[in-house]
Amino acid sequence: xxSSDRRARRQYWAVAILSPLAIFLLWVFVTAQGAVPAIILxxxxxxxxSFLDMVQRGYSGVALATHVGASLWRVGVAFLIGxxxxxxxxxxxxxxxxxxxxxxVPSEIVRPIPPLGLIPLFILWFGIGELSKILLIFxxxxxxxxxxxxxxxxxxxxxxxxxxxxxxAGRWQIFRFVVLxxxxxxxxxxxxxxxxxxxxxxxASELLGxxxxxxxLILDASSFFxxxxxxxxxxxxxLIGLISDRGIAYLSRRIVHWEGRR
Amino acid sequence: xxxxxKGLALVPEPAGHADGPRASAVRPVLSFEQVGFDYDxxxxxxxxxxxxxxxxxxxxxxxSGCGKTTILNMVAGFLKPTxxxxxxxxxxxxxxxxxxxxxxxxxxxxxxxxxxxxxxxSLRCAGRPKAEQRQVASEMAALxxxxxxxxxxxxQLSGGMRQRVGLARVLAAKPKVMLMDxxxxxxxxxxxxxxxxxxxxxxxxxxxxxxxxxxxxxxxxFLGDRIFLLNDLKEGRFEEFRVxxxxxxxxxxxxxxxxxxxxxxAIYRQMRH
Lengths: 262, 273
Description:
heterodimer; A: mainly alpha; MetI-like fold; B: Rossmann fold; seven-stranded mixed sheet; 32% helix; globular
């Protein structure tokens, strides 16, 4: 890394940290002026107080860690299974026309349906328990990953496939050593999009009922106009999103080290 | 007339190059028998026949679109002749296989694998033990002048080094025939000439048979034992030139040899013809 690269990097991080700081200061300033009613936009201090209250005493009789844990579990399970199956089906669709044909119409009919539209059906079919919530997130993740993995598999260079064939690679070896790595950049991008969507749908899925989870916390607090708790919950979900996105982005740079360097 | 021309439609070789040992006097390793190829109902080639002897380097020369890559793709097994037969060791070519290694124009290396893993790929596919893979990788790296970079990734190498990896991974599979599809056309002149000499050195050392597709007359003359100049494959016609340059062939001085210059001129006039 040259010194000008290093300077550019420092500048990048300075801006990346100053930008949220500026938003925060604007928030402090606006609420300190008293121009907006606290029930619409509470001050950062009030939100922090509610947050500490939840840390100490929980929310609606359940510890904050339990709310967070319940949400992470739902997102985690749905994300892992959805991503694994979505990648597998997407890669197969990208390389095997028959499999593509099987999934084409069903998946394109389901894809445009907003998850919220599925909630009434899921309540009828699977009840209001964990299964409905996880399935709702799962479907979104699965569809995103399928589309990305398929596009990734399609992007595999003909010469790479031919090179592998002429070095004696069998079908499975071509899939494992050529098609999958070729699709990885797009798969990693898909994971970041899917994680963001999964957290969005988490809140919707916790509309389905139940008494724990960050989505439940936000919705419950909002129906009682406890805006400071709504804000605390939103910020928590936001932080989970930020950390998971940075985590996946970091992994992606490590795993797909060749991307953009060819 | 030579044995190669039997039943074929070869234009006679230019005078002064008709002598020397005939390639097809021995059992050919690679042959085309009245091969035709249609694409979208359009004839790309008709009735093309030739035979290549073990250890021979045949340069296939012609402008883009003349069908030279189609020939290579049929030998590689990527395309099937729509008429006639393409044979390797007397058996019809059924599909791609490790007995015919391909060096691609853009190297087509696996960017996600180290140089060593790229070179040892055919052994990995054949289920050879890890130790053997490592050993062959370093042997082949040494053979093509890549020692010391086995742990790097292709994107960390220059264009010339990438093509050396492309050569090494094909050699590692010990193919009967090496197919080279304009492998040096994207490189700068100096690198290209160094690699051309490398190919000849490797050929001398391994006795490998090579089909080398190129659009450069100089490259064809410098490398080839024989040159097929493709001018009208639709009529099954191509011209054959025998190269008579002093051994060892892996010698840059040969580019200045009177025989080199004469042959280059003869081919140039034919191409312009």
